[in-house]
TrEMBL record:
Residues 36-107 form the PAS fold-3 domain. Keywords: Receptor. This is Aerotaxis receptor. It comes from the Bacteria. It comes from Celeribacter halophilus. The keyword Plastid does not apply.
Length: 435
């Protein structure tokens, strides 16, 4: 079949092609996006025959209302070997439309796309975002890459630091909403991870505030030495105190580096949040992959699927196992980094306690100098104010860091019914799946 533009010549309809929320369907393509196979639900909803589908580019079902920027983002990620998800509006052969949330996964020789019916409250926001993005493409002549940048900017306005974070949050919300509609037991792990995200956001804000507070103290030791030099020889102890304060302040500032992620490009709370988003994606996608694998196996046994479908079941089985293994791995990683965050906060608390002691010594020495310390008083008062800021911020960081660690440790350990350090490591690296 030729790779013509299938979306330009077909009539569209405002009617929706119906399918039930309990139905899952999938298709498999080669690395160019040409359809190789799929299940019977996919064929039925699309309205095509298998002869029309197999060998056709997947855009045979693309709806013309879809922003090109979305597909740019998807292909950009897939070509890097990254699993991802997206809301997609498709068009059936008769022109009717149907919305799906699709999970795209790289496999040997191509990709597998598993789709479910979107029902979460987030879905309505996405419809508006897509319509606005599509209109900008049409009216402003945005290229796919420009449209992709616009979509990412809109998602940041909604509070998502990256497209990865958005797709992770979206698939988790869809899985939760689907379980609710189908009256299934909710996966508490997903809700637990979602509840951690605003705590990490607050922690990141306090982290930035702490950096700003420490920055204010950097010039104080120099000011103290200048004042002390005018008090010689009585100012000698003040000079020694200022030197000790500078050394300990430098040590505390260096320790703040432990609040940075591995590559130093973001704070540790932000790095932990990125991994929490990764865990959301892997866990939610894992549950869908497991279910669609079972759906495919049942279709094969019942005779709904055609001969030769066993190969598709095997691919879905391998994909499901990979997602489950990666889910365990990423949860371990999240727990480990959350504990490291709490430890770093406690270590910094000890360093700041040492700085407080030096500050108190400075005030005691100023009292001993009596009237001679008039010029030193403004510097000490400034130091006091900064330490009040630092102590308050650090106290909040300690509280939030402990809360994150407790939430992750409790919910994750309970979800697997065994200590996290006893879980088997995944066979694949997280960076190969989610970034």
């Amino acid at each position: 079949m030729s790779r013509q533009d299938f979306t330009s010549s077909k009539v569209t309809s405002k009617e929706e092609a119906p399918f039930d929320i309990n139905e899952l369907f999938f298709s498999r393509t080669d690395d160019r996006g040409v359809i190789i196979s799929g299940n019977e639900v996919f064929r039925r909803i699309s309205g095509y025959t298998w002869d029309e589908l197999v060998g056709a580019p997947h855009k045979i079902i693309r709806h013309p209302d879809m922003p090109k920027g979305v597909f740019y983002i998807l292909w950009e990620r897939l070509k890097k070997g990254l699993a991802t998800g997206a809301y997609v509006k498709n068009r059936a052969n008769d022109g009717r439309h149907y919305w799906v949330y699709a999970i795209f996964s790289p496999v040997d020789g191509g990709y597998v796309s598993v789709r479910l019916k979107p029902t979460s409250s987030l879905f309505e926001s996405v419809i508006s975002l897509y319509a606005e993005s599509f209109n900008r493409e049409q009216e402003d002549g945005l290229s796919p890459v420009e449209s992709a940048g616009n979509i990412r900017a809109k998602l940041r306005d909604l509070g998502f630091p990256s497209y990865s974070a958005f797709s992770s949050y979206a698939v988790a919300q869809e899985v939760i909403a689907r379980a609710d509609v189908l009256a299934r037991v909710e996966d508490e792990r997903l809700q637990s991870l979602i509840r951690i995200l605003p705590v990490l956001e607050a922690l990141d804000e306090q982290h930035a505030s702490l950096f700003a507070s420490f920055a204010k103290t950097r010039g104080i030791p120099s000011n103290m030495r200048i004042v002390a030099s005018r008090l010689e020889p009585a100012g000698g102890p003040i000079s020694a105190i200022s030197q000790n304060y500078r050394l300990m302040s430098d040590e505390a500032s260096t320790h703040l580096g432990s609040f940075q992620g591995d590559d130093g490009s973001q704070s540790l709370p932000a790095a932990v949040a990125k991994k929490v988003y990764g865990a959301l994606f892997m866990m939610a996608a894992s549950s869908i992959q497991c279910e669609v694998k079972n759906v495919a196996a049942e279709g094969l046994v019942s005779g709904v699927e055609a001969d030769g479908f066993q190969g598709e079941v095997d691919i879905l089985d391998q994909l499901s196992e990979g997602y489950m293994a990666e889910s365990r791995s990423v949860l371990q990683s999240v727990c480990s980094e959350a504990m490291a965050l709490a430890r770093s906060a406690k270590d910094l608390r000890q360093l700041v306690t040492g700085l407080d002691s030096i500050r108190v010594l400075c005030r005691v020495e100023a009292g001993r100098l009596s009237a001679q310390s008039v010029a030193l008083t403004p510097v000490i008062n400034q130091l006091d104010r900064f330490h009040v800021e630092i102590d308050s911020t650090l106290e909040q960081i300690l509280t939030l860091a402990d809360k994150v660690a407790a939430m992750i440790e409790t919910s994750m350990a309970r979800s697997f019914n065994c200590p996290l350090d006893k879980l088997p490591a995944a066979e694949r690296n997280l960076s190969q799946v989610y970034a």
